[in-house]
């Protein structure tokens, strides 16, 4: 079984972003792999370690810097990487889904494991859209993934409102990883060195025959309204009296 | 309201006669509705006229509260609003929806194929409904149900959906948070159909009684699916639902164990509120993941939010910083949570929380 894992390079989750001149300043801040994608890569590797998968292909779409993110995936345990160079322009999930569909058509994976959302655009769309374009089953917000013995089905526990739900998808299928799916491993130094020798193929949207231009444009990015500064109270009694003044209790 | 430019003369005339503009309506009486133009022979002008479909989530014949917020958001788009309800108990839900203020029509699809919210069957149904009813907008709450279905439906319609909308500026311009709510983006969609998920806490819910929507059979679509629903484990609770509670008491890693959450339940019960948690508390296994508040958990905006032993990481703030009043109890005076708190108490939570609950009794 072959697994495709799309990964995205995003501003590191710990960075407090700044808004300047109507956009988010991403020029000089630390970037890393989207945390949900790390979980997706980890899941693919675990399936390979369990002898369920034979090959893991990591793919990233974006500027040439996305190759760093692919090297991270390779260092974690992916076998091959594919970079689709879209330059510096931001891509919409639908564009990404169309590019991924072209890659799926070319590479014929049995499973595509994505993160449930990227922490920059917070869209939570790409996996679902790819599944729609391919007409494949989808299991989003996965917290547990188990392949059936015959590799024909995948059973997925999903995080839903109020609890958990189990679904069974016919393979090929799309899975999007939630936080609880696993704890991603760190890439060790020897593996980082080895990753430098693993194959990394480079393509453009044109090579894949995808020339979709999105019809969704960002007009403006602003800072959220700031909360007025609060006060520290000295005791529980003072807290209660403040809340009573406000009519909250 | 924008009007004549977007409507044909005959449509304006008939609206006038129906008392649409509020004058002399009684004298004219109610004229029959003009026939709804089908999708194929719409003029460009008619196409631009908003007509919104809201996908309704329901369970055990109860409408999800967040779907009522979505209907509230649909009213901001302008134009008539229809609701789509599908499932084996769709009729029972449609009966309730008929009373919802602001709804013109309820499209009912009675089929057990839609009972478990599978996107593989819902997405084609939305596509068929859009094409059948020439809707310009499709809305759903940004719940796991809506987030799972809407992007797939958008892909089938070849449009870019807009997630987690917090404000509708116009028919084609929407506002949504990005970067865990640390930036607010205004986006414009030029797609033929706008598919949106809306943040429940940003829109007032539609009122359940007083409306007079008509029910009719919805579109049909293929119902085969490569996904089979197997089972679910839903946590039963008598307390208010986290998403809709007016008061929320949330605990973090500092609670140290699941048993210690009892003091939070105790306080929440005194306040008639719900209990939530930070990611750290969920990861540590203190409580179930359905209680997680934050960028990847639930987004809430109660009247009163009490953060207990929560440091206030960016990802947690994303889920609660629109709360009306934030109170935090933390023994670290430098904890970032104090920067967004209206009232902060630097104290040991194991003393302060029981004391607070005790004193609320009196």
From TrEMBL, chain A:
As for subcellular location, the record says: Mitochondrion matrix
UniProt xrefs under SUPFAM superfamilies: Adenine nucleotide alpha hydrolases-like
A GO CC annotation recorded here is: mitochondrial matrix
Per its Swiss-Prot or TrEMBL entry, what cofactor is needed?
AMP; FAD
The protein's superkingdom reads Eukaryota
What is known about its subunit structure?
Answer: Heterodimer of an alpha and a beta subunit.
Function as written in the Swiss-Prot or TrEMBL entry: The electron transfer flavoprotein serves as a specific electron acceptor for several dehydrogenases, including five acyl-CoA dehydrogenases, glutaryl-CoA and sarcosine dehydrogenase. It transfers the electrons to the main mitochondrial respiratory chain via ETF-ubiquinone oxidoreductase (ETF dehydrogenase).
Q: Return the similarity comment.
A: Belongs to the ETF beta-subunit/FixA family.
Write the protein's name.
Probable electron transfer flavoprotein subunit beta
Automatic annotation (TrEMBL), chain B:
Where in this chain does the record put each Electron transfer flavoprotein alpha/beta-subunit N-terminal domain?
52-233
Q: Key word Electron transport present in the record?
A: yes
Task: Recite the UniProt keywords alphabetically.
Answer: Electron transport, FAD, Flavoprotein, Mitochondrion, Transport
Signal peptide span? none
Q: Tell me which Gene3D superfamilies the record gives.
A: HUPs, TPP-binding domain
Q: What is any one GO biological process for this UniProt entry?
A: fatty acid beta-oxidation using acyl-CoA dehydrogenase
Keyword flag Transport: yes
Q: In which compartments does the protein localize?
A: Mitochondrion matrix
Any binding details for the cofactor? Binds 1 FAD per dimer.
- An MF annotation (GO) of this entry: flavin adenine dinucleotide binding
Entries under CDD domains matching the protein: ETF_alpha
Q: Which InterPro entries match?
A: DHS-like_NAD/FAD-binding_dom, ETF_a/b_N, ETF_a/FixB, ETF_alpha_N, ETF_asu_C, Rossmann-like_a/b/a_fold
> Which GO terms of the cellular component aspect does the record hold?
mitochondrial matrix
Q: How does it assemble?
A: Heterodimer of an alpha and a beta subunit.
Q: What's the protein here called? A: Probable electron transfer flavoprotein subunit alpha
The uppermost taxa in this organism's lineage are: Eukaryota, Fungi, Fungi incertae sedis, Chytridiomycota, Chytridiomycota incertae sedis
């Amino acid at each position: 079984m072959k697994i495709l894992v799309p990964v995205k390079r995003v501003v590191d989750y710990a960075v407090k972003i700044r808004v300047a001149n109507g956009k988010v300043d991403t020029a000089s801040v630390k970037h890393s792999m989207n945390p949900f994608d790390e979980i997706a890569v980890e899941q693919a590797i675990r399936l390979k370690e369990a002898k369920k998968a034979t090959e893991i292909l990591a793919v990233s779409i974006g500027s040439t810097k996305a190759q760093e993110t692919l090297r991270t995936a390779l260092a974690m345990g992916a076998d091959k990487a594919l970079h689709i160079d879209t330059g510096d322009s931001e891509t919409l999930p639908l564009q990404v889904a169309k590019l991924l569909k072209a890659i799926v058509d070319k590479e014929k994976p049995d499973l595509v494991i994505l993160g449930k959302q990227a922490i920059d655009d917070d869209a939570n769309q790409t996996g679902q859209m790819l599944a729609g374009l391919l007409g494949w089953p989808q299991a989003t917000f996965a917290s547990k993934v188990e392949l059936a013995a015959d590799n024909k089905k995948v059973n997925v526990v999903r995080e839903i409102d109020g609890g958990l739900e189990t679904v069974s998808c016919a393979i090929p299928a799309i899975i999007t990883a939630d936080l609880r799916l696993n704890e991603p491993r760190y890439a060790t130094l020897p593996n980082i060195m080895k990753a430098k020798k693993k194959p990394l193929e480079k393509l453009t949207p044109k090579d894949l025959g995808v020339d979709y231009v999105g019809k969704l444009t960002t007009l403006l990015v602003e800072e959220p309204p700031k909360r007025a500064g609060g006060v520290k109270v000295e005791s529980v009694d003072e807290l209660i009296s403040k809340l009573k003044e406000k009519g909250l209790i | 309201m924008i009007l004549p430019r977007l409507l044909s003369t005959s449509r304006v005339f008939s609206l006038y006669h129906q008392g649409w503009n509020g004058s002399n309506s009684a004298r004219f009486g109610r004229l029959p509705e003009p026939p709804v133009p089908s999708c194929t022979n719409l003029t460009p002008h008619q196409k631009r006229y908003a007509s919104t479909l809201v996908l309704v989530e329901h369970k055990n014949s109860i409408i999800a509260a967040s779907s009522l917020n979505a209907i509230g958001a649909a009213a901001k788009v302008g134009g008539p609003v229809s609701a789509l309800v599908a499932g084996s108990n769709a009729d029972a839900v449609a009966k309730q929806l008929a009373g919802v203020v602001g709804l013109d029509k309820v499209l009912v699809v009675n089929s057990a194929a839609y009972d478990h919210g599978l996107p593989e069957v819902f997405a084609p149904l939305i596509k068929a409904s859009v094409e059948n009813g020439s809707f310009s907008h499709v809305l759903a709450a940004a719940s796991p149900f809506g987030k799972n279905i809407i992007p797939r439906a958008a892909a089938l319609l070849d449009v870019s959906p807009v997630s987690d909308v917090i404000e509708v500026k116009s028919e084609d311009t929407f506002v949504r948070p990005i970067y865990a709510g640390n930036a607010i983006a205004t986006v414009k969609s030029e797609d033929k159909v706008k598919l949106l998920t809306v943040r429940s806490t940003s829109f007032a819910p539609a009122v359940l009684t007083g409306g007079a929507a008509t029910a009719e059979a919805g579109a049909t679509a293929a119902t085969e699916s490569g996904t089979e629903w197997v089972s679910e484990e839903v946590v039963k609770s008598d307390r208010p639902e986290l998403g809709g509670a007016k008061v929320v008491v949330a605990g973090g890693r500092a609670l140290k164990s699941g048993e210690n959450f009892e003091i939070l339940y105790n306080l929440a019960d005194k306040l008639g509120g719900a209990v939530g948690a930070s990611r750290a508390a969920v990861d540590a296994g203190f409580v179930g993941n359905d209680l997680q508040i934050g960028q990847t958990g639930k987004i809430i905006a109660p009247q009163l939010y009490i953060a207990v032993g929560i440091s206030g990481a960016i990802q947690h703030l994303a889920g609660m910083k629109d709360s009306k009043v934030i109170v935090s109890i933390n023994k670290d005076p430098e904890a970032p949570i104090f920067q967004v708190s209206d009232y902060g108490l630097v104290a040991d939570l194991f003393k302060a929380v029981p004391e607070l609950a005790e004193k609320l009794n009196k």
